[in-house]
Design brief:
The protein is an all-alpha fold. It is built from 9 helices and no strands. It has one domain.
Length: 264
């Protein structure tokens, strides 16, 4: 998203401006401290999480900086689902088969594909709910990984600072080197503070926010597809979809089940 890129660049610019105002910006390029912080955080995360969890977290992180198209808005999604419901009511699910291959929404394509081959609306609903819950859980776990990395950052910044202080103590006999050594020690702490607050925490929050947005989108698709499978009136279906869209907070309850009427 554009605001994610803008925020990241703005934050980096603020840090660079603050460093430049000291009159010696090169002093803040402490690669030794940066290596300790980033390397330590990465190593601790490897110990803390499985390879699959890290791959999923990387995928969701890329989504944070990937712009979403107009079709991703829930308003346009509702209009699209209502049109599909009208086609399905007139021609059955065979009439929406083209949408399975043409749709740019993987969950919608999968839901329609399952609806075409399944004659049991209850089983279809249970399967889609399970798929929604699994993806929601994966996104929340990815968010937790970045929150954990945010905890590791200051700790390894402190480690880098301790190394720097040890270097200061070694050079106590040379007063002219104490100042630069202490400055290098403190820049390790700076790296440990900046990296979690500029990257890890915002990314974790954005992943969680996208998980909630994605949950709303998938629940809209679930209700629509089950409505099509049970021959629900498109007008009534549109009303239900807009109610969900207007009050998405009702979805964000663990174990919450959306009841879908089975009569037209």
């Amino acid at each position: 998203m554009m605001n994610s890129w803008f925020g990241l660049l703005l934050g980096a610019g603020v840090i660079a401006f603050g460093a430049a105002e000291t009159g010696n910006i090169q002093l803040f390029f402490n690669f030794h401290g940066l290596f300790i912080v980033l390397g330590g955080v990465f190593a601790a995360t490897l110990v803390n999480s499985s390879g699959k969890e890290l791959l999923d977290a990387s995928r969701w992180m890329l989504d944070v900086f990937r712009p979403r198209g107009q079709e991703a808005t829930n308003e346009s999604l509702i209009n699209r689902l209502v049109k599909l419901a009208q086609v399905a009511r007139q021609h059955g699910f065979l009439g929406v088969q083209n949408e399975i291959s043409d749709s740019d929404n993987p969950f919608l394509s999968k839901a329609l594909e399952m609806a075409v081959v399944s004659g049991d609306a209850a089983r279809l609903k249970a399967t889609l709910e399970m798929k929604i819950e699994m993806e929601r859980h994966a996104r929340i776990e990815a968010s937790n990984i970045f929150r954990t990395m945010a905890v590791f950052g200051p700790m390894f910044g402190l480690v880098g600072t301790i190394f720097g202080i040890v270097r200061v103590l070694q050079n106590m006999s040379s007063p002219e080197s104490v100042g630069p050594s202490m400055a290098l020690a403190l820049t390790s702490a700076l790296s440990g503070i900046v990296s979690p607050n500029l990257l890890c925490v915002p990314i974790a929050n954005r992943i969680r926010s996208q998980a909630l947005d994605n949950l709303t989108e998938q629940e809209l698709i679930l209700v629509a597809v089950i409505g099509m499978a049970t021959n629900l009136s498109p007008a009534l279906l549109e009303t239900e979809l807009r109610m969900i869209y207007a009050h998405p907070e009702a979805l964000f309850v663990p174990g919450k089940v959306i009841e879908v009427p089975t009569q037209a």
